[in-house]
Amino acid sequence: MSADHTSSVISARVRHVEALLESRGLLDEGEIDGRIDEFLAGGTPANGARITARAWVDPGFRERLLADANAAIREVGLSMAGGLQEQRLKVVANTADEHNVVVCTLCSCYPIALLGPSPGWYKSEAYRSRVVRDPRGVLREFGLELPERTRISVWDASAESRYMVVPRRPEGTEGLSEEQLAALVTRKGLIGTAAV
Q: What is the C-alpha R_g of the chain?
């Protein structure tokens, strides 16, 4: 059993349950930490970038992605089934008229499998509370200045649902391969706090 857990009532309870499962042979020592490490190792912004690039070059995939993201990402070998149950994924696409940004106002729910571990600012109380009230101002602080006519939609993640943004494809990229396009996509672009 790992000794890397912080001290708290919940941590003590988790350690106790983990020890019970290990003592009964239902869990190998360190198995939970190993599974967490596997889960985090598989999660990277490159996954979200790959999905985005495919949506940019394949209109049929884009349509399926926006209609049923969980099914569409399975087409490229990805899944939102990293925990006890598959998390619902909704993918939203930026357009010339609408910009999307993702937040979790309650905690920091986030599609780790597609974006890697969440950045510190995403978990901060300042971001979580302000982006809902003043999305344009928060985006400006990230260096993203949107025209006043652009509508901003804020998507609030939860324990059951995760969101990812498909940024607008940059102009002048028509000749790039899917792999080259994926290299242009950033985690901030997939959250909606930056353009690509």
A: 19
**What total of structural domains would you count in the chain?**
2
**pLDDT per position as a tens digit, 52-105:** 999 999 999 999 999 999 999 999 999 998 665 788 999 999 999 999 999 999
Choose the catalytic residue: 7, 11, 79, 104.
104
- Whether 108 is a known active-site residue: answer yes
- Same domain for 125 and 184? yes
C-alpha–C-alpha distance, residues 167 and 195, integer Å = 7
Q: Is residue 1 part of a domain?
A: no
φ/ψ (deg, to 5) at 162: -125, 155
* Residue 57 domain-assigned (yes or no): yes
* pTM listed for this prediction: 0.81
- Known binding-site residue numbers for Fe(3+): 104, 107-109
Instruction: Assess whether 23 carries a catalytic annotation.
Output: no
Kind of pairing between the strands at 88-93 and 151-156: unpaired
pLDDT above 90 coverage of the chain, percent: 70
21 lies in which domain range? 9-40
Same-domain status, 35 and 53: no
Q: What is the pLDDT of residues 121-135, one digit of tens each?
A: 999 999 999 999 999
Active-site entry in 2, 11, 107, 124: 107
Note whether 29 and 121 are same-domain residues: no
Indicate whether 122 belongs to any domain: yes
**Are 129 and 147 part of one and the same domain?**
yes
Catalytic residue among 108, 118, 158, 161: 108
Angle at 124 between CA 119 and CA 130, to 5 degrees: 115
